[in-house]
Amino acid sequence: MANYPFTSALVTGASSGIGAAMVELLADAGVPTVVVARRRDRLEELAAAHKGVEVLVADLTTAEGLAAVAERATSADLVVNNAGFGTSGEFHTLDGERLSREIALNIDALTRLSRAALGAMVPRGRGYLLNVSSVASFQPAPKLAVYAATKAYVTSRTESLHE
């Protein structure tokens, strides 16, 4: 069993991929973890398979969802901003509403959750923030123009916070 320097966690985008893998590692190490995503069924599967997992269904592109998660993020020792998605194709043909949701999730939600978490962690004198980015953040990606740009923001902002 791993030994982590935190006693509680909150993971966004926990219903699949990197987020689900992180939840499994944390839960298996005995770290109580709040799992956040839109897909209740997948979150409940994680909770059923692992002790100490609390389900919080939320859409981080809505004010209500973001507020609920931001409030919970203030009590976690580790906040993992993993929620995100990408849209591929010729930029001028892509759905503008989808691109707006992508920016809202990949940039705005991450920014607001980071601020909420750090607003509680800094006065406590402890805490960890992990923002999941992508190798796409290091170069323009012609058919992933918005995704690469949002991940460049995540990388740059996270490095700024580290400094």
Word description of this protein:
With 163 residues, this protein is of the alpha/beta class. Helix content is 49%, strand content 13%. It has 5 helices and 5 strands, in the order βαβαβαβαβα. It has helices at residues 17-28, 40-49, 63-73, 96-124, 145-162; strands spanning 9-12, 33-37, 53-57, 78-81, 128-131. It has a 5-stranded parallel β-sheet, with helices on both faces. α3 packs parallel to α4 (96-124). The two termini are 31 Å apart. The relative contact order is 0.15.
Give a short summary of the structure:
This protein is an alpha/beta fold and 163 residues long. It is 49% helix and 13% strand.
Please outline the helices and strands:
Elements: E1 9-12, H1 17-28, E2 33-37, H2 40-49, E3 53-57, H3 63-73, E4 78-81, H4 96-124, E5 128-131, H5 145-162
Parallel strand pairs: 1-2, 1-4, 2-3, 4-5
Helix pairs in contact: 3-4, 4-5
